[in-house]
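Your task:
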Amino acid sequence: MKSIQVGLLGIGTVGSGVFNVLQRNREEITRRAGRDIEVTMVADLDTARAQGIVGPGVKVVNDARAVIANPDIDIVIELIGGYGIAKALVMEAIAAGKHVVTANKALLAVHGTEIFEAAHRKGVMVAFEAAVAGGIPIIKALREGLTANRIQWIAGIINGTTNFILSEMRDKGLDFAVALKDAQRLGYAEADPTFDIEGVDAAHKATIMSAIAFGIPVQFDKAYIEGITKLGAQDIRYAEQLGYRIKLLGITKKTAKGVELRVHPSLVPAKRLIANVEGAMNAVMVQGDAVGTTLYYGKGAGSEPTASAVIADLVDITRLHTADAAQRVPHLAFQPDSMSDAPILPMDEVVTSYYLRMRVADEAGVLAKVTGILASSGISIDAVLQREADDVGGAETHQTDLIILTHDTREGTMNSALAQMQALPTVVAPITRIRKEELA
């Protein structure tokens, strides 16, 4: 049987991993796919380096469009990244009747609806297991393994850089800025880590999972995004004392009013398995009505873990290459004419519980004023912790940290209460607010 010929656009960290794993496990992959899969053409601006990776048997060019134009190429793997030229190349590959595999979560989170519609019209597949959580097969689990379930919610640690930083802050008592420098020195964070530490990367991935879980279009522009840059070492410490750990979570949840789609630091009970995911590892919890709670854990990045997901997509496409398009697994799990118009809820309508840390003057009546504002707003208190401030530069300042855990309340209600508390003359610094997720 004729082999499946693959064109690779970009042969950096992931691309070289794809090529090497395909070569190393070629016999095993062929047995599973039913025919040989081989990379026969590579496009990369550094042709000399690329040729050195793939050897003389593979054609290397510096023009990605030459790969797309080659009639012998069955599948195009896009590993360039970003929103710009990558989108143009993916759309051109689809127009040329090529199946596409991509690890580009940013592209799909922003332009996925357009890309999937084009692929559906052309009868080709766009596969993207590697776009979310690296080597963890979470897309396949949501789209196929859990297809009998009504997915109720998903909560994931889906950015290894931020999880590494938070682990360092907890284990070593470091402030955010110091932990970030360590992450950059060790190669876990980029020179410009903005997409990671501000939560954008996690939001791209959460957007894709939300679309698959609930059969809605990808809507990255409606996601609530908050990073970890405002967290202090004292927040990590106080959370521990209260029985919680702080994780940056990507959360999507189906409610009666619509779909929650949010990324932010969250207090998670220390007894939850996901709270104990450390370092650069990823983990995703999925709650289904039939299966209950499931947890998926593994490496969320890296050359070969991501290559594992890319090659799994290659095998899927190879198996279905000759199948009628209507019989293939839909891109977003639901048939294109059965997508839901459930709205993405504005953050003000989200209901959750909270951790509040406020630096206050150590004097009589302060706690009563704060709790009075919460009570008048209808916000119930779960726990209160008061600790002497240890970073104010001298005992004569008479300041203390007041930590309050609340029960569930609407975000808009909490915002109003926070504004009132912040205006109190005895509250002497910006209030830190972290949402709390029991994940029960």
About this structure: The longest helix spans residues 105-122. The chain has a mean pLDDT of 94. The chain has three domains: 4-135+303-338, 138-299, 351-436.
